[in-house]
Amino acid sequence: MMNDLLKSYSDLPDVWGEGALFAFSGMDGATCAASGFVGTLGAAKGSFLFHTPKRRTLTFAFEGEARVRVALSDAVAAETAAGELLVTYASWHTLVGVMPDKAVCKLVMEDGPEAEQQGRFWVSEDKTAPDALVGAGRGRQFSLAYGATVEEAQKRAQAGLEMNQWEVAAKRLAAFRKLPAITVQDPGLRRLAAKSFSVMRVNTLSAEGAMRQAWSTPDRVPHKDMWLWDSVFHSLAMDHVDPRLSWELLKSVLDTQAPDGFIAHQTSVAGKSSNVTQPPLLAWGVWQCYRARKDRPCLEYALPRLEAYLEWNLKNRDTNHNGLLEWKMHENARCRCGESGLDNSPRFDSGAVMDAVDFSAIQAHDMRCAARIAAEMGMKSRASRWNDRAAAMEAKVNEKLWDETDGFYYDRKVDGELVKVKAVSGFFPLLMDDVPAARVDKLVRALNDPALFATACPVPSVALSEPSFGTDMWRGPMWANTNFLVILGLARHGRMQEARALAGKTVAMIRKHYERAGVLFEFFDSKDQTLPERMDRKGPCDPPYNIRKKVHCIRDYHWTAAVALCLILDPNLAGMAR
Questions:
Q1: Residues in contact with 383: Cβ distance below 8 Å, sequence separation at least 6, in sequence order
Q2: What Rg value do the Cα atoms of the chain yield, rounded?
């Protein structure tokens, strides 16, 4: 049966990885983020961890080794000496599959008992949640279902047992026919593209609660909610696969806008939002989606909201009124500036309020994108206004945040002192239209300097020369999303050789660790010496691996997948260079 399932597919992901996300995709039907019924793969092949309030482990014990044939975010299949193992989602609440002959299946609650046999069902009930997982079997066939009550879960489990599990799995695999053709003669690269799409799928959810249409999350566990700048990176990759869905991901963020124009960096399905924002990439995301879809009503909906948001930033994040923007700072020493998205960067160690080079450059870039949207809609005066404001901010960045001696862009404290921490943010002015050619040359020189940013896995989040350089999040590691912004900036200024080289190194590092560990990590050691799973995350990485603690590098991270897919599908950077 497995060969029949796979005969029309090639180069699907086939690496089992501990912590890989395993859940139903909102691209296939309804999801329920509020339930917490999200799985991850365990360390051993055939083991699964479900992240309900009291977690459960599901294990299939069998003799001998298992050869994994497919390892997707919603379907895994393996061959063993005793027969096939298949586990796949039929819906957000029900899994179906087959197990090898004489395999032993166990469902155990965290700090609790093994599931009880109740007639033809085995039941794991948490009366405090309340929720229940119920399994049912018939020969080698099984189903496992979630429910708010035992009775609901039993009905779902029984219905799952009546399904043809191979037909269900075929539906999950059929989604990969949507991927654009990848012409490179490299099966490993095609597998990485499929893995990236699989991660994108699992982190895309359906309308629920405060979300009126599809939306995306950085990772179903542990972040769970919708995040502003993450969602834009997600949409950029979705433009290649399903531009209609890409628009929904962006609209879900725009829909959270407050009456004064503010857009929060984080919103839950319950409608709870944070009181800080994030890097303003929304106009860029909307413009790129329009280029893929050519849907003017989307622009008509988005433009006034984008303008209100950009205005909010100008009004509320320029406290010294000098035409540059400042991030809101926090007292938490491990996360001085969550609003920037670069939470624990040494740029913020002093806690001082600064004219931020990344905020200002990204805002200028987004104002340019708003101008393009207005021009496309025939609104010449509005387009001119946003272009003028972008040009003014670019001029301020060039005047106030450039250090000619160092050949680099820095933040500046509001009292006037430059904060000379060489960080990846210093390359973000390459997103701007107005950067003198001589400065582009100096930035490229810094990028290629082995004493600064030319690491084994560039671009480090801070230069090697920084005293605090290490493997903790934004204090040295490479991130795919910031690399993507640097690649875009290089391409924008005609430095295609450097852009392609960085794109290739970024994909190679993501691929290397996927093929080794079976997951797409949140960030990577720019020296390529420490494995991602052993890197710090706002403090020491304490074993054993526990996804809920957020002290380990997150796995199957959405924007890592999105950037990888963008760079694989557009290897010549044609879409970014225009």
A1: 371, 372, 374, 375
A2: 24
H/E stretch holding 569 reads: helix 558-569
CA 330 to CA 344: how far, in whole Å? 11
Query: Which residues, listed in sequence order, are joined to residue 423 by a DSSP beta bridge?
Result: 462
Say how far apart CA 336 and CA 353 lie, in whole Å.
Answer: 11
- Do 280 and 356 touch, CB atoms closer than 8 A? no
Backbone angles phi, psi at 30, to 5 degrees: -70, 140
Phi/psi of residue 398, each to 5°? -65, -35
- pLDDT for residue 578 is more than 60: no
For residue 120, how many other CB atoms are within 10 A of its CB?
A: 13
Q: Is the peptide bond before 13 cis (omega within 30 degrees of 0)?
A: no
Q: How far is CA 501 from CA 453, 486, 567, in A?
A: 14, 12, 11
Q: Are 502 and 486 in contact (CB under 8 A)?
A: yes
State the DSSP H helix or E strand holding residue 142, giving kind and residue range, or none if neither: strand 141-147
Alpha-carbon span 287 to 293, nearest angstrom = 10
Nearest to 347 by CA among 463, 227, 488: 463
Tell me, yes or no, if the pTM score tops 0.85: yes
Q: Say how far apart CA 369 and CA 297 lie, in whole Å.
A: 17
In this prediction, residue 549 carries a pLDDT of: 80
Are 432 and 360 a contacting pair, CB within 8 Å? no
One-character DSSP codes across 532-566: GGGS-SSS--PSSP-GGG--S--BS-HHHHHHHHH
- Dihedral of alpha carbons 223, 225, 229, 233, sign: positive
Distances in Å between the alpha carbon of 453 and those of 242, 445, 449, 477, 526? 35, 9, 6, 11, 9
* 186 Cα distance to chain centroid: 25
What distance in Å separates the CA atoms of residue 429 and residue 425, rounded to the nearest whole number?
A: 8
Closest CA to 76 of 209, 217, 173, 220: 173
- Could you tell me if 363 and 397 are in contact, meaning their C-beta atoms sit under 8 angstroms apart? no
Residue type, 508: A
Q: What is the 3-state secondary structure (H, E, C) of 54-65?
A: CCEEEEEECCCC
Q: Quick: pLDDT tens for 72-124.
A: 999 999 999 999 999 999 999 999 999 999 999 999 999 889 999 898 899 99
Q: Which residue has the tokens 């003198």?
A: 436
